[in-house]
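re: ur question from earlier - yeah i can do the single chain one, its not a big deal. heres the input i used so u can compare w yours
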Amino acid sequence: MLLAELREQVVRVGMNALELGIVHGTAGNMSIRDAESGLIAISPSGMPYAAVTAEDVVVLDDQGKIQDSCRKPSSETPLHTMIYRQRPHVGAIVHTHSHFSTVVSTIRDALPPILTEITLVLGAGVPVTRYGLTGTSDLGESVLEVLDHRGLAVILRNHGLIAFGKDFAEALMVAEIVEEAAKVYVHALAANGGREPYLVPEDLIPEMRERFLASYGQPTARSGGPDGESCRRHTGKFPWLPI
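and the output i got, formated as tokens:
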């Protein structure tokens, strides 16, 4: 089976997103790009997440031509392939219909820097697209119009959220961070009578992010772990994050 491991990853990330409550039914879609071949494994169209197997996941090229599968690919395939063609830093895409991100998409042109966490990972905010026609290249164009060349998330007008990473772990983490920030923002607006809540000062964000990226995490390795073995650690930097 072509790209067997990546197809299994598509199944697992779909179930993870379902458990997190950021997708429901058959809404949303996921894909990952093979670094060697450039081929893409993408979720099938119209199938409940719990029913999808690795064989159902579709393998196609970045023009949308199917290379292996008996299923139809996601209806948002033009969105995924367009992003992969235009943004080399993207290795995986998680598109959700996250509730609070979608609420923000109906009332604002961006999710502002409401939480420290989102500013450290995504900067001063997450842009909201114009309305893009679903299932067509117009949706992809609406994303690329606002997606920075190292951007990691975009909120889709009246639709949902799309998050990126070098792999599914990162893309799903970004989707969770954005949804949590959107939830806090919507609740803050309600608690504040619709008035804009206090935000993270934008002039502080570049310095905050630089310090975070330089210091967060652990050294790459150190001795003295269990049984005298070296501990494998995060590098303390996130090379996939823009700065």
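The domain at 4-191 is CATH 3.40.225.10 (L-fuculose-1-phosphate Aldolase). not sure if urs matches, ping me
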